[in-house]
Amino acid sequence: MNTHPQALDHASQTEINAAAILSCEQEPIRIPGSIQPHGFFLGIEHGDNLAQQPVIQVSNNLPLHTGISVDQALHHPLANVIGLENAQQLLNSLAAQSFQFYPLYLGTVALENGGFYDVLTHPQDGMTVFEFEQTSRQAHADFRHLYPLVGNFLNSLSSVSSIEEMSQIAVREFKRLTSYGRILLYRFDGAGHGEVLAEAVDEGYHAYLNQRFPASDIPRQARDLYVINRMRLIADANYTPVALVPAHHPLTGQANDLTHAVLRSVSPVHVQYMKNMGTLSSMSVSIVIKGKLWGLISCHHAEAKPVSFETRAACEQLGQILALHIASKEESDEASERLELRRMLVEMLGPLGKGMDFVGNISGIAPLLMRFAKAGGVALMFGDEVKAFGNTPTPEELQSLVAWLGTQSQGIFHTDSLPRLYPAAAAYQASASGILALPISSLHRHYLIWFRPEVIQTIDWAGHPYHKQAQAPQQDNLSPRMSFSLWRETVSGKSRPWNSSEVGIAAEFHTALLSLVLERAEQMAELAEELGRANKELEAFSYSVSHDLRAPMRHIVGFADLLLEYQGDVLNERSQRFIHNIKDSARFSSRLVDGLLSFSQMGRAALHIADVDMNELVRSSLAKLLEDQQGREVECDVAELPVIQADGNFLQLALFNLLSNALKYTRTRSPAKISISVEAQDDNWIFHIADNGVGFPMEFVHKLFGVFQRLHRMEEFEGTGIGLANVKRIIERHGGSVWAEGSPDQGATFSFSLPKQIPQAN
Amino acid sequence: MLKPILLVEDNPKDLELALIALEKSQLANEVIVVRDGAEALDYLNAEGQFANRQTGNPAVVLLDLKLPKIDGLEVLKYIRSADALKSIPVVMLTSSREEQDLLRSYSLGVNAYVVKPVEFREFVQAIADLGIFWAVLNEPPPGSTRYVRRP
Question: What CATH number should be reported for the domain holding residue A131?
Answer without folding.
Answer: 3.30.450.20
